[in-house]
Amino acid sequence: MNDSLPDAPRHPHSSSAGTDLWETVDALSAWLDAGEPVAGREALLLRMLKLSEEVGEVAQAVIGATGQNPRKGVSHSWEDVESELCDVVITALVALRTLTPRAREVFAGHLARVAERSGGIRPASGLLRGQGTEL
């Protein structure tokens, strides 16, 4: 009889390399910049608008997961909602990186302010330095 515990389930999109969140955000931003059909202010505005598109996809997934559209019924799962929420977060971080090369510091500072005004919650010290955020 084997008394060892089974391996913990892995998310299908997880990376065994433990890639840093902000390195990935930088790489995604650079990749998008390289293939951008427009440049400058217009590219920046379109990147911001992409966030609204992703939020709409969350709404669509929630409606589908709850079967609120009688024509479609249950068309999504709660895992679809999770995935769409992740897309919102990624898109927001890439948009922030597009707006400023200091995205890591801006986000960490804002997170600390939100935590403080939310009852004095203190984020992990690595998060305040923009570290400790692995995908």
Please explain how this structure is put together:
- It comes from Streptomyces phaeoluteigriseus.
- InterPro entries: AF0060_NTP-PPase_MazG-like.
- This is MazG-like family protein.
- With 135 residues, this protein is mostly helical.
- The protein is 61% helix and 0% strand.
- The radius of gyration is 19 Å and the shape is globular.
- Helix 1 (21-34) crosses helix 3 and helix 2 packs antiparallel against helix 3 (78-99).
- It has a domain at 37-117.
- The chain has five helices and no strands.
The number of distinct helices, counting runs of at least 4 residues, comes to 5
Poorly predicted runs: 1-18, 128-135
State the order of secondary-structure elements, H for helix, E for strand: HHHHH
Helix content: 55-70%
Radius of gyration, in angstroms, nearest whole number: 19 Å
Query: Mean of the pLDDT scores?
Result: 83
Structural class: mainly alpha
Number of strands: 0
The first-to-last residue Cα distance is: 35 Å
Summarize the topology.
Elements: H1 21-34, H2 40-66, H3 78-99, H4 103-117, H5 125-128
Helix pairs in contact: 1-3, 2-3
InterPro entries: AF0060_NTP-PPase_MazG-like
Organism: Streptomyces phaeoluteigriseus
Protein name: MazG-like family protein
Characteristic key phrases:
single chain; 135 residues; 61% helix; globular
Structure in a nutshell:
InterPro entries: AF0060_NTP-PPase_MazG-like (IPR044548). The chain has helices at 21-34, 40-66, 78-99, 103-117, 125-128.
